[in-house]
Amino acid sequence: MTAARRAVVRANLARMTAHKRAQPDPVDYAPADQSPFGAARVVVGLLLVLAGAVVLAVAMLPQLVPTFGADPFTFLIQDRTGAPEDGNGTLLTFGALVLPAGGFSLAYLSATSRTRLWIAGFCAAFFTLQTVLLAGAVLWITGAGLHAAALFALPRSFDTGVITSPLALLFSVAAAAIMFVLAKRTTFDAQSADYFAEGNTVVRVRPLPVVVHALWAVVALAVLAAVLYVPLALIERAALDSAAGTLPEGSSAPWPRHTDLDFADARAAYAVTVGILVGAIVSSLIKKVLYRTVLRGYIGAPVSAQTEDRWKGIQSFAHYPIAVAGGTATAVVLFLLPTNDYDEPDATAIAIFTSISIALLLLGLFLLSSVWKSGDDPLHESALQQGVVGDLHKTFAVPDRRKRTPKRPKRPRRNR
What we know:
This protein has helices at about 5-15, 40-65, 90-110, 115-145, 160-185, 190-200, 210-240, 260-290, 305-315, 320-335, 345-370, 390-395, and strands at about 75, 200-205, 250-255, 380-385. By secondary structure, it is mainly alpha-helical.
């Protein structure tokens, strides 16, 4: 066998055995919250998750359905002053936050690891669909000429709460998606007992391939572009029908009728949120590329105990700057794409948010290029820490103790 052939075989074997500790473990680990009623608690939790969607549907469909016109993207002209205001704001809170978050937590913590994986995957997809539909309903009702709170038959004082309700659902999306990824691509299940008991641990990670990670970033950018530009295209379409504002009540007109503050605020809130998600994905991709190329030699390099402790506290925030920069950069695009003919781009706001975006990008690059100083492997290890409700200091403080999986010994470099 030639030397080149032997090198290929060794490379293939290395790929096959890489990250062995992060492969799915066949063991079905115990629930985080032990109870003789575990199965019943799982069922109740899932029923609460479904109940959240039912509550939202029952509360908003009576106001939403009558606005649809006969043709796609048309709405029925309605009397905006006669909208009912006899709804219950508690239904919105329970449907968008309490029931989804509480139901997922109850089901997840009461299930064994195999069932937890299924619950997390189902809830991540279900909450995402629910968030998209709720956000679409808010945009539709405001584009039809009604204020946002009219979606739930609430007074105008609830406008902000209705506009931000899809963002509240994102907390449940994030919780389910994070737990699903941890179970699929890390050693979390094997270390879950320590995590749930102590509140912190370091898991071994099987990273996504760079190409797949980049595709996720492209998909996220496509979603952001849709949120930014599709409403503008529909606004221009509706503007071609100059008689839309003079049609009698009950007539069908192209959507949207006009773009008042509620419509613009909702579009901006959702676009900036998607921009932050894009920034987070890009930040993670940048870190992966950095430590597979120019910073590869720094992984595992010795640092002082003081430096390691300091960066263990900072590394939790390493992705924040570029993630937020994604939101501020999205704001710049929103300033450049006004939704009304009489709106002019705000040069001052554009300059301020552009400067903030650049500063955050530079700060993020500095943090990402320094996280190796924490002592954790930037590519194959992730430090997990539970948040503590009502105690921000404990939530973000450097944990006193972290259990980690044994590290693989480094292979000596060969002289070339």
